[in-house]
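Troubleshooting entry. Yesterday's outputs looked truncated, so today I'm pasting the complete records for two proteins to confirm everything comes through intact. If either block looks cut off, that's the bug. Protein one:
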Amino acid sequence: MIIMKLPKIEKLIIKYVTNSITAAELDELSIWLKEPENEQVFYEYVKVNYAIDYNMIQFDINKTEKVLLKKIREDSNVLYRIRIRSVFKYVAIFISIIGITFFFQNGDDTIQELKISDEAITIKLDNGNIEVITTTGEKRILDKKGRIVGIQKGIELNYQNKNNSQTPLPSLFSNKKEKLAYNELTVPYGKKFQIVLSDGTEVFLNAGTSFKYPVKFINGTKRQVYLLSGEAYFDVTKDTNDPFIVNTNEMCIRVLGTEFNVSSYPEDPTISTVLVEGYVSLFGKNEVYNDDETSLLKSGQMANWNKSNKEISINIVDTSIYTSWKNGKLIFKNLQFKNIVKKLERHYNVSIINNNKKLGEQYYNATFDIETIEQVLKSFNKSFEIMYTIENNKIIIN
């Protein structure tokens, strides 16, 4: 019988599944696995370390064991011809069957867990105060005079609430002109939020978004809101008298009533507007709106405003790809990994550093909804060799 101390075999198996095993070590592991007693030890290792430690409910352990054992033995016979590259493919098979991803750092045997910080959604009131919004609770939003202007329940803040006995009636003898009061919502990475404005317009805010809006629109004036940064989906209540205008740092979108998506993250080179229904007009921030001089966007089209040269390009697109985020989905269609990375960072509130230039140029088609960031990376790993480590909430791809 070939005897090997368990700590050493653990290290060899870990090196195998992380693509760091040498030819000599792979031969050593293969010889060790020829003994039935050692195979049983290996079975227990798989169960204990990859099932219990990761709180898995169930998976086909027998199939996992057989596939990995078979591939280890096959690798040993052809290693010198195809070297470590084939080993990595088998690691992907192993990960795919179990349905988890493994993390190792600094060459030791400690499995590193991803630590995702839980940042709060905040609202800046018209009096300058900043308050935290807890999506599991409820909150009343007050104006400077202590009157209720909005009610938050869960992930929605509604400014249409009219059943408020605490709101005093306006004075019949007041000659003061009504002024707009603004609130500003900030949604951190990893979270989403919804607002119902005073006119009934629904606004869905994506992760990493700051949005400024009046607590109450005034009849006879333009309904202006400000997407300071981030992404928002608008379902605008129709009003032919008072147009609805979304202001960004570079351009404006004018509508009467329609559904559209605007993405204006500061790190992106363009501001994109995707129209789901109706028509919208696009014009520069410092330009005066003119029907004849603005760019008109039709349903099913996307306009990209280039921040550098201020030019607009318009294309026909599948709008669901750009609006699916409001339903909790991520859809990537023919998109390079280097562009996917930032969307993953926002969605999962993690930092991803990609040192693999070849991977960054790869194009992907993928859809995710309830997957964790670990499961997402595992999916990419099926088609491209990905090696990465973790430092708190930072994922480093090498």
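Protein two, checking that the full record survives here as well:
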Amino acid sequence: MHRNIKNLYAIANKPTRKVIGLMSGTSMDGLDIALCEFEGSGSNTKLKLIHATTVSYNEEARQNILSVFSKEIVSLEKLCLINPWLGKLHAYMILETLKAWGMTASEIDLIASHGQTIYHAPKSLHPNDAFGSATLQIGEADHIAVDTGIITISDFRQKHIAAGGEGAPLSVYGDHILFASKTENRILLNIGGISNFTYLPAGADLNTILSSDTGPGNTIMDAYMRTHFNQSFDKDATIARKGQVHQELLKAVKANSFFSLPFPKTVGPELFNLEYLKQAQIQSNTTHLSTEDVLATLNLFTATTIAEAIKQVIGSAMGSNNLIALYISGGGMHNPLLLEHLINLLTGIKVLSLNELGYHPDAKEAILFALLANEAIAGEAMQIGGNATKKPITMGKISFPD
């Protein structure tokens, strides 16, 4: 037996495993790194978050990623070059972070790398009947494994597609294991570039759980800020608060067939981008609006599409005596205006930070991919009702250091 296989077998049988989870989202602000310690797997999983941080990308790195991000036409040479380059960059970030934590690579059992999504193409959003759903993440895991010396699990989304899903959202698997409650109906909402949620009815019957994207999170607002203000995001919603919501523009940006698709569904900045906004402004005759009014409208656009999706899924539970709590994570939770809109739109639902459940809200997705890696090595294939896979699956590909 190859020594790496022996090593992997030993890791799977350890009483606890230290796993580094990595997440780089569509905001492209940096790499989220979460060091988790796992005991057990599946419903018996016990997780301890040891450290969590975000390592920011410098402007050169951000521009390199943007050059191939969410574009129908890119340079194949540039894409080939950036894939290993990003893997090596992530490896460097991991090693530097371990130094800052006073740790060495030999103390880590596994790395779980989500990679950087550069294109997401669910079948519902492309017209070619010869092809199904597809997604592409870069940041080659072999480079991470070789440069760090740590076994790396990556490319989680491909198995989900192979089993009949759309490759997203995958948070449902970790949400069920970590956050299901016997007494509280819970909604786990993550507002990144795209917004997605998992609905966990009390008791967590697998057949009643559902996870889906809702539409844009920060993606259009952030792109608008980069273009018009040379800023990564609207800090504290300062600019959006100066504007007024324009109802005709709001109506136009909501007029897309995606919002009427059945759940679960996925989407990305391939649809919700500045060109989408431009066409909506033309159709609504609102090209004259101030930047402040546009941002105010985009902010409410994100909030209303989230709220309408949640109301549609939980249905009769709204306004009943059943306790419903919504726990928010992701960059959007730091937008106070967006939170105000959600609280006003979701009356009867407690809107809380994921902190209330004992987890750092900015580290959630990195934690969840660490959990998927733990399941890939030490768990069983999983199937969650309402998440569109044909059979139970184990996600992640294995890269050895040598």
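Both blocks look complete. Sanity check on protein two: The first helix runs from residue 3 to 12.
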